[in-house]
């Protein structure tokens, strides 16, 4: 048993990659540096070396990463590090073999499950909020279109100028209003259907 406890305290040397994505470039670089500085304050992690790569633009966002050579004080701390800092990759260089107690594996799995449940709850909450916002935004846009038609028959380009919605995006709402029989269309001119 003491041998197994000692294995949980084995220092583990590894290289990890921490990535930050966002914009503007300066904010991404500053955030990455702050994130790495926070890692350095953890008393159960020893940062041996850090190399920062230059931020690169990727699909209108900036991506930056740092490669950190660190030592974690034990398997539980390495697992906690992964949960807390979410590295994009980790490569263990020492030791070659690791032994873990059953309780360490159980703790890892239970922590993983708890975090997955938290993430699932957040995703469901955000989906509900997103659905609510989409529904209400759609109603607001349709109301803007209907209000713009109160003064008379107008074309799509004029509706676009009044509502501030571009043509392609506007067409989706116009099609919905046509299906709902709230407006009619004749040769590119839209009219409010009066009930």
Explain what the structure shows:
The protein has about 200 residues and is α+β, with helices and mostly antiparallel strands. The chain folds into 2 domains: about 1-95, ACT-like. Chain A, domain 2 (Alpha-Beta Plaits, 2-Layer Sandwich), CATH 3.30.70.1150; about 140-190, Arc Repressor Mutant, subunit A. It has helices spanning about 1-10, 25-40, 75-85, 100-150, 155-165, 165-180, and strands at about 10-20, 45-50, 55-60, 60-75, 90-95, 155, 185, 190. Strands 1, 2, 3, 4 and 5 form a 5-stranded antiparallel β-sheet that branches. The chain has a 3-stranded antiparallel β-sheet with strand order 6-8-7.
What topology emerges from the helices and strands here?
Layout: H1 2-8, E1 11-22, H2 25-40, E2 45-52, E3 56-58, E4 61-73, H3 75-85, E5 89-94, H4 102-149, E6 154-155, H5 156-163, H6 167-179, E7 183-186, E8 189-192
Antiparallel strand pairs: 1-4, 1-5, 2-4, 3-4, 6-8, 7-8
């Amino acid at each position: 048993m003491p041998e197994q406890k000692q294995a949980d305290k084995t220092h583990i040397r590894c290289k990890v990659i921490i990535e930050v994505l966002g914009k503007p470039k300066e904010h991404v670089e500053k955030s990455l540096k702050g994130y790495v500085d926070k890692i350095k304050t953890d008393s159960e992690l020893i940062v041996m070396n850090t190399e920062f790569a230059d931020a690169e633009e990727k699909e209108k966002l900036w991506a930056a990463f740092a490669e950190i050579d660190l030592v974690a004080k034990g398997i539980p701390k390495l697992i906690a590090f992964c949960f807390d800092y979410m590295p994009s990759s980790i490569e263990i260089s020492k030791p070659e073999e690791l032994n873990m107690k059953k309780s360490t594996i159980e703790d890892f799995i239970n922590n993983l499950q708890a975090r997955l449940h938290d993430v699932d709850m957040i995703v469901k909450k955000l989906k509900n909020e997103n659905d609510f916002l989409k529904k209400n935004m759609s109603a607001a846009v349709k109301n803007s279109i209907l209000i713009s038609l109160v003064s008379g028959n107008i074309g799509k380009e004029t509706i676009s100028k009044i509502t501030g919605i571009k043509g392609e995006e506007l067409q989706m709402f116009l099609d919905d209003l046509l299906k709902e029989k709230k407006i009619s269309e004749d040769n590119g001119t839209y009219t409010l259907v009066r009930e």
